[in-house]
Amino acid sequence: MIGARRLGPYLVLPLLAVSLAACSSSSSGGTDPSALTGGVWHLSAESMSALVPSVPSGAEVTIEFKDGEVSGTSACNAYGASYTAGNDGSMRFGTFRSTLMVCEPSLDALERAYVAALDAVSRFSVGDVLSLTGSGTPLNFSRAAAPAVSLTGTEWDLKAVGADASVASVVTRATLLLADDGTASGSAGCNTFHGTYQTSGNALTFGSLATTRKLCEDDVMSLEHAYLTALGKAATYSISGTVLTIDDASGKQFLQYSTPAG
């Protein structure tokens, strides 16, 4: 598990300190910062292979630029940071924040290598391909979408309750399943729950959720309370690849899920 300190709904992920050095942008792309936005970029298989000797099957790494913030999936955890991009192709990221999901060793290795490469970025070039370069491993992305995962009919595994770092590392399985008939169910870590939900566009809200009444270890019960409380504050959702993010009304990412295979 990666150590961290609290920062709002995220956790600050310590990054490898790497000095930044400018390099020329790719001749195949331009340096218009507005071209960075408008969708999710997916890291190429070639770039993943340059980061680690063995790329885990089904691994996905993404990046999205929006309103001065960058976010995405770093193979296992979700991450975010501020960014600045200039018309001259310069780019700088702020301090990276990350959820604290305990990852498989191969995914953890890819995640660490990717975040270190991001931290070394000083230039960008964007066209059909987004290239991020600097003093670390070059990163190339495309907009080629990953296979769509449906919000409904998918059993989502909870990865992190981002608003409460104290329960992010509890070893238990919590889930969410949304049926087409408007019913919601799942495991809250100890007890199971069921109730209703509503969606409209990217809006997502839950009605009252009923639970069973078992008692479990204190840390599991703390996770359960935080999870159910967070569901009650849900306002919007987004899906990137195999990751579901549920935000509260202020737009803070405070629940992260993945599919069992994600």
Q: Could you give a quick summary of the protein structure above?
A:
The protein is mainly beta.
Total strands: 20
Fraction of helical residues: 10-25%
The CATH architecture of the largest domain comes to: Beta Barrel
The number of distinct structural domains comes to: 2
- N-to-C series of helices and strands: EEEHEEEEEHEEEEEEEEEHEEE
CATH class descriptor of the largest domain: Mainly Beta
- Uncertain segments are 1-27, 163-168
Mean pLDDT: 83
Shape: elongated
The fold-level CATH name of the largest domain is: Lipocalin
Please outline the major beta sheet: 11 strands, antiparallel
Radius of gyration: 19 Å
Structure explained in plain terms:
- With 262 residues, the protein is mainly β.
- The protein folds into 2 domains: 5-142, Lipocalin; 155-258, Lipocalin (Beta Barrel), CATH 2.40.128.
- The protein has 3 helices and 20 strands.
- The protein has helices spanning 45-51, 105-119, 218-232, and strands spanning 5-7, 10-12, 40-43, 62-66, 69-73, 78-85, 91-93, 97-98, 121-126, 129-134, 139-142, 155-161, 175-178, 183-187, 192-200, 203-206, 210-211, 236-240, 243-247, 253-258.
- The strands form 2 sheets. Strands 1, 2, 3, 4, 5, 6, 7, 8, 9, 10 and 11 form an 11-stranded antiparallel beta sheet that branches. Strands 12, 13, 14, 15, 16, 17, 18, 19 and 20 form a 9-stranded antiparallel beta sheet that branches.
- The longest helix is centred in the middle third of the chain and has 15 residues, at 105-119.
- The radius of gyration is 19 Å and the shape is elongated.
- Residues 1-27 and 163-168 have low confidence and may be disordered.
